[in-house]
Amino acid sequence: MSLFFLNPLYLFGLLAASLPIIIHLLNRRRIKRIRFPAVKFILLSQKRISRTKRLRHWLLLALRTAAIVVLVFLLARPIFQTGAGLFASGGPSSVALVLDNSLSMTWSRDGEGFKEAKEAAARLFASLGAGDRAALIPTNTGSKEPIRLKREKEVLLRDLEAVKIADGSADFGAALGRAYDVLRAPASGKEIWVVTDAALTDWDRFSLAALKQYDPAVPVKVIKVATKEAPPNAAIREIRLRGQDVNVGLPTEIQAVITNFGATEIKDLLVQLRVDDQPKEQKLVALAPRGEAEANFQFVLTRPGSHTAAVTLKKERLAGSATDYFTLEAEDKVKVFVVDGDPQTSLVASETFFLTRALNPEGGGSSPFVPTVVIPEGFAAAPLDSYQAVVLCNLPTIPDAALPRLKEFVRRGGGLLVFLGDRVQPEDYNRKLYDTSPSILPARLKDKRIVSASALEKVDRIDLKHPALAAFTDPILAESLKSARVAGYYRIDAAGAAPIIALGNGDALAVERKFGFGRVVLVDTAADRDWSDLPVKTAYLPLVQSLVSYLQGGKKGALETGVAVGESKKFSLPAAYVGKNLKIVRPDQREREVALAAEGDKASGAFAENEVAGIYRVSAPLSPDAPAALAPVYPVNPPFLESRMEAISDGELAARLRPARATIVPVEEIAKGGSRSDLALPLLLVLILTLLSEGWLAQRFYG
Amino acid sequence: MAVTANGERSYFDPQVLARLSNLYLKARWVVEGMMSGIHRSRSKGFSVEFEEHREYSPGDEIRRIDWKALGKFDRYFIKETEDETNLRATLILDGSASMDYGSNGVTKFEYASILTASLAYLMLKQQDAAGVATFSDKIESFVPPRARRGYIFEILHALEAHRPAGETNTGKILQEIAGKMNRRGLVILVSDLLDDTEEVLNGLRLFRFSGHDVIVFHVMDSAEIELPFDGNILFEDLEQPDLKVTADPQTIREVYRGVVNEFIDHVRKECHAAMIDYQLVSTTTPLDRALVSYLGWRA
C-alpha cells in the first residue's frame, strides 16, 4: 500500500498549513504592554477559565489547519494504491516504460530475469485504462524511429515482444532522456517506470541530475529484477599477445586474463580457444574469489592474412559474457633479396655475412625473414616480384637490366636498403638512382671518407621518432648503436633531408626517402666490418631487422581485440578511397555500408552499428593504385564490466535518480497486481465537513 | 459620554471638565451648572460661631477687622468665624497609584478629584462644613471640616497638591481618619476600592459604629469594567510593578466581567447591610449624576 500524488508540486502548499499556527505564534509574540489597575481580577479570571474553553481554542486552530492541509492534498491529487499499483484507476496517465535489455539481463535470476521483466512490463501495459497512454523505451535499441505515447495496448505488447537482449551496456542516461522527451508535452498523471536488473555497471555512471532535461515532478518507479542467488560470475578481461609478432609458421602465443566477479571460488572453469572456427586448445583454470587467472595458449598459423578466433568460458550456471572474440593478422615471412657486391670464397669475409645472420640468426625456419643472397650478375636477371625487400651491399654499379625492375619494385611498395662500400662507384649510383626524376636514392653520393684508426667517427644521433628506429628507445640498444665506430663512409648530400642516423661530426649515416608506394633507406657505410664495427654490435641485428621490416611496409602480424558493443569502429584508408563505401557484414548477417570521407591525406569513416558481439567482416572496393591495407575482419565484444552481476543498492539507486521521487519495487510485486484509487472525492467531503465544523463551532464558541 | 439631547457635550462631561486647569472652576462649573437646573438657594438663617483670629492681610474685607483686638494689641486681626451648620462632611479621596488610570482621557483620580471638589463646593455653598483627606498608603493630607467661606480653596489646594502614587491601604487609613474625627458627621469615600475588600468594608463599618453617615463613590474606569482590549496583552499592575500577567482579553473577557460584577455586587451588598450609601460611578458618568445622588441623600 502506498500513496502518491499526481500533482506533487502542489504539496508545497502544505507550508500554508502552518499559517494559522504562525499567526497564532506571531500574535503571542506581539504582546502589548498595558499598565492596568485591576490585574488581580485578570488573574482571577484566568484561573476561572475552564479547560474546556482552552480546548475549544485549540480545536478551532486544528480545524483551520486541517482545512488547509486537506485542500492542498486535494489539489495534489492523491492516489492510493495497493500492491505495486498498476496504471489503471489513477485517472488518465502518461507513462514511459524504460526496459533494460542490456546484456546483464541475460543472467539475472538464473536466466529468467529478462523474461520476468517483460512479463512485468506486459502486465503493466495490460492494465492501461481507456484514457491512458504509454511508450516503450528499450535501453539498447538500434532503431532511429521516434518514440511516442500510444493508447493501443496490442501495439505496445507487440513492441514489447520484439525487444531482445542486446550485447551492450544499458545507457540509462539516453533512455531516461528519451522518456522525459516523450513526456514533454503537457499531460496529467505523468510517470516513468524502469524495469531493470539494477546492474552496478550500468547505474554507476548514471545521474539524473546530469541529464540535459528532466522533470523532477515526474515520479520514477523502478521495478527491480534482482538476482535471487549469486551464480558463478566470471568474464574474460583481456586477451593479449605474448612474445613476438604473429607470423605464419611460427608459434603464436596468446594469453586470456579471466576475472572472477563473485565472492566464491570458481573451480574447473573450462577455457576453450577456437581459431578459424576450429578448436585449438582448452585449459582448466581455478579462480579465487574476486581474483584473476590467466590461460595461455600456443598454436601455429599456417597461412598469412586474417584469422578469426574466440576464447570461450564453459561452466554450468556461469553468469557473464562467456565468449571473447578476437582476430589475428598473420604475416608471411619477409623474403629479402640480398645482393652481395663483394662476394668472397670465405663466407665470413663476404659482404653479406653479417647481414644475412642478422636477418636469420639461427639459419633455420624460425626467423620471420628469409634472405636470398645473389652476386651482382644474378641481380641483373632475378625477378623481384616475390620479394618484399631488396638489400644492396657494396654493389659497384647498378646493372642497367635490373634498374627498371628495381624502380618498379619500389614504386609498387617494395623496400630498398642500400649499404655502400669500397667498391661502390658513386657516379653510377648518382646517375642511375639519384639524377633520375624522381630520385630513388635519398641522397647524392659525394666523396668517400676514410679516417684513421685514431679518429674513428662514432654514431651520435638517432631519430627515435622514426618508425624504423622505434626499437632504439630501449637505452641498451641505443647505447650499443652509439658505441659503434665508423672508419669509412660516403659523404652525401640529402638536399636538406634530415638523417635518421648521424655521426658525431654531423655527417649523415642513414637517410630515408619515399618512392611511389615504397621506401628507400641509404646507409652510407658498409654492411660488413670493412668500414665499421657496427656488425659486431648488439644493435646490428635489431637495426637490420627494423629497417627491413619498415621497408617492406611495416606490416606485422597482430592480435586485434576490436571494439566494445556500442562503440564505433573507425577506418582509415589511402586518399584514393575518398567517396567510396566500405561494405560491412555483421555477425547477424545484416549488411551495412560506411561512406569514406576525406580527412587530412586519408579517407576515413566510422561504423557505429556494432550492436552485436562477434566478428564483423569488412570489404573495400578494389583500387589498383592503392592497396587497401585493411583488415577484412574485426571483432566486437560486450563491455567487460557488463558481465559484472553486482547490483546497485536501493539507496544508491534512489540517490542517482534524485531529485525525482523514486520508488523501487521488486518485480514480484508486479505479479501480485494491485489497484489505485483516486482520493479526490473523499478528500472533498472531508474538506466540506471540516469547514462546516469550523464554522459551527466558531459560532457556538464565540458567536 | 455625556451628551445632551441636541448632541452637544454637557457641562458635566468629565472629558470637558478635565480640560479646565483650575479645580475650583471645575467644581463651580459642575455645581452652578447643576443648581441652575434646579433652583437658586441662598444660604441664610444660620448663626455664626467665632473660631479664631488671624492677622490681616491685604485683600481681606475691612468689615471683618476686629476693632477690639486692634485696641488691645495695636495690630489688625481678622475675626475668623465658622458658620454654624448641622452637617460636617469629611471627603476622603483615594490617591493611590491605581487611581492614576484612565482609558478615555480622564483618569479615575481626575474624575474623583472633580467629584470631591464639587461635593465640597456644594456643601460649603449650602453652609455645611466640609473637609477633605487624601491618602495612598498613608494619609497624605487632612483638611478638617469647616463651614467657613473661602475654605473651599484650602480643600482644593489639598486636592491639587496630591499626585496619585503608592499602594492603597484603605482599611488602615479609614481607621486613622476615624480617630481624627471627634464629631459625628458625613463621611464620603471616593475610591476605586482596589484593595482588600473586607478591610475596606471594616473601615467603613467603623465610621458607622461611630455614628457617621457614610457614602461610597466607587469610581471605576469603563475599561476596568468591560476589558475592551484585543490581542495578547501583558498587564502590569499600577501599584505592584511585580504583578504582571499575559492574557488574551478576548478569551477571558466574559469571565472577567463576571468577576468584576461579583466584586461590585459584593461591595454593594455589604454597604447596604451596613446602611452605607453606595454609588458606582464610571469615569464616563457625567458629574451631575453623582452630585444628584448626593443631593438625593441630603434630602
Q: How many angstroms separate the termini of chain A?
A: 44 Å
Oligomer: heterodimer
CA distance, first residue to last residue of chain B: 28 Å
Give the overall average pLDDT of chain B: 78
The counted number of beta strands of chain B is 10
Overall helicity of chain A? 10-25%
From the structure above, extract its key features:
heterodimer, A: 5-stranded parallel sheet, 16 helices, B: 299 residues, alpha/beta, 6-stranded mixed sheet, 40% helix, 22% strand, disordered N terminus
Description of the structure:
The complex is a heterodimer of chains A (703) and B (299). Chain A has 703 residues and is of the alpha/beta class. In chain A, 25% of the residues lie in helices and 31% in strands. Chain A has 16 helices and 36 strands. The longest helix of chain A has 25 residues, at 51-75. Chain A is elongated, with a radius of gyration of 40 Å. Chain B is elongated, with a radius of gyration of 21 Å. Chain B has helices at residues 14-19, 23-36, 67-73, 108-125, 151-160, 170-180, 197-209, 222-226, 249-273, 287-298, and strands at 48-55, 77-83, 88-94, 129-135, 139-146, 186-191, 213-220, 233-237, 244-247, 277-282. In chain B, helix 4 packs antiparallel against helix 5. Chain B is α/β, with parallel strands linked by helices and 299 residues long. In chain B, strands 5-4-3-6-7-10 form a six-stranded mixed sheet, sandwiched between helices. In chain B, strands 1-2 form a two-stranded antiparallel ribbon. The A-B interface holds A 27-28, 30-46, 48-49, 53, 57, 702 and B 98-99, 101, 108, 192, 194, 221, 223-224, 227, 229, 231-240, 243-247, 250-252, 255-256, 258-260, 263. Strand 2 of chain A pairs parallel with strand 8 (233-237) of chain B, so a sheet runs across the interface.
